[in-house]
Automatic annotation (TrEMBL):
This is Secreted acid phosphatase. It holds the Pfam family Acid_phosphat_B. Gene3D superfamilies: HAD superfamily/HAD-like. Residues 1-31 form the signal peptide. It comes from Streptomyces achromogenes.
Amino acid sequence: MTRGTWKRRIAMTAVATAAATALAVPVGAQAATAGGASTATATASAAAAEAVDYATWQQDCRTLMDQALPALKQRIAAAKPGEKQAIVFDIDNTTLESDFGFSYPAPANKPVLEVAKYAQEHGVSLFFVTARPGIISGVTDYNLKTVGYKVSGLYVRGFLDLFKDVAAYKTAQRVTIESKGYTIIANIGNSATDLSGGHAETTYKLPDYNGQLS
């Protein structure tokens, strides 16, 4: 994570923490079942850029989601009788535009929201697994719902989770989702820690430009 990214993330956390004092929003927590992992990755045209250009980032996100949606439509249509399908999403710079401007609620990442809306309109449950601390779970849940995501479960890090490897923590949450009877048909994030560890049929990695948006 770059120095600039840290500054943006600290500012975002400060805004969310302040909002938490004014909002009391319940956080859901349910789950999903799974499989192996096939990975689709977008070719980032600004992968080595010093600063990430918003328009380039949006185009790269669009490219990947345009690849993902036809496959997801096919998988959703092929649901077995009684199968509970789920998609797991990261939050920062995946479902929300965390590093582009400071506002609350943070805007949705539109290409990802479009995929999420198709899925939720066709009976797929959406779960969000984030490295964000539990102190801002309420405002995070509110933010996601306000911009159009139907949240079936939000997983944030408790105090003890802060000392664990992020990839291992996120894998454990997907295992929990599976244990509740869901099939995780896709796992979408912008960092390797979002996607490693299996417990999803497919993975889709959004651009992070060598960690600038991780």
